[in-house]
Amino acid sequence: LAGCGDKDAAGGSDDGKLVMGFSQVGAESGWRTANTNDIKAAAPAAGIELKFSDAQGKQENQISAIRGFITQKVDVIAFSPVVTSGWDAVLKEAKDADIPVILTDRAVDSQDTSLYKTFLGSDFVKEGKEAGDWLVKDSAGKTGPINVVELQGTTGAAPAIDRQKGFADAIAANPNIKIVKSQTGDFKRADGKTVMEQFLQSTPKIDVLYAHNDDMGLGAIEAIEAAGKVPGKDIKIITVDAVKDGMTALAAGKINYIVECSPLLGTQLMELAKKVHAGESVEQRILTQETTFTQEQAKAALPDRKY
Ligand code: AHR
Questions:
Q1: How far, in Å, is the centroid of ligand 1 from the Cα of 15?
Q2: If you average pLDDT over residues 17-30, what whole number do you get?
Q3: Are the C-beta atoms of residues 99 and 74 closer than 8 Å to each other?
């Protein structure tokens, strides 16, 4: 007899539910926690059995989780790839086993797009561009040098690559805006603090911090305050995500601008899983709807912020 939750011969669990194997990046940020909570809530609400695996930031853990899902013959595999490259072999194994794969949040660089059914998530290049556009507007009329330090996300991850590019493109026509330091803080608050401490020690004049997520920005704020400077004033701060902690710092004037990246992908993901399992065609790329926040907009939005 199959155990509870085992897949029967016709697919699905033995109680007839569609089974999804989901490999999450880890728990590096407030965004990630909100994303995990949303997916865990959306699965039962959609009548889907979720097998959830936390890769703790390691690609090898994600690859073995995906191989495990293939062995367990889940109906659909979904994952948020920690980095963009190195997925072809395991995605081919899933394809050979006839298990559809959905990418959520982050992209892979596989040339063969038949290895996955769809990619649901944000346009990270656009997010970086919006961050840069804000700085260009804020710097209008200033002719002296504007020194920017950048806290990058996880090296090799799609949001780090794309947010760096979008920002660089947006400021390119303004030679007085210069990225004087750029280093990874791995999307983590503690790393954001440590790297910002190093930036402050090595760089006499920092005008702006661009952090690829709120958490690194919040860590950097601790370093800036410890160095006797006023975040949001002495050093302007732009971040991405708009999680509650980030929005609170924005409303308090410690961050100047946040570009939203929505972690609430669960409901759409479950709908897509049902469709690909039923053999229906879905769009290859599904973009998440998101916005941007000034300090005033953050004050207005905070009371209703869900994550
Ligand atoms: O992939 C989305 C990014 O990953 C979020 O911006 C960041 O906070 C997270 O860790």
A1: 35
A2: 98
A3: yes
pLDDT category of residue 102 using cuts at 50, 70 and 90: very high
Inform me whether the pLDDT recorded for 6 exceeds 60: no
Residues in the chain: 307
Crossing angle (nearest 10°) for helices 88-96 and 59-71: 10
Q: What's the pLDDT score for residue 4? A: 34
pLDDT attached to residue 1: 24
Q: Which residues face 77 on adjacent strands?
A: 21, 101
Residue among 23, 25, 258 whose CB has most ligand 1 atoms within 8 A, to mutate: 25
For ligand 1, residues with CB inside 6 Å are: 28-29, 31-32, 105-106, 159, 187, 213, 215, 240-241, 261
Q: With b meaning 16 or more CB within 10 Å and e meaning fewer, what string describes 143-171?
A: eeebbbbbbbbbebbbbbbbbbebbbebb
> Residue 213: what are its φ and ψ, rounded to 5°?
-150, 165
* Dihedral of alpha carbons 253, 255, 256, 259, sign: negative
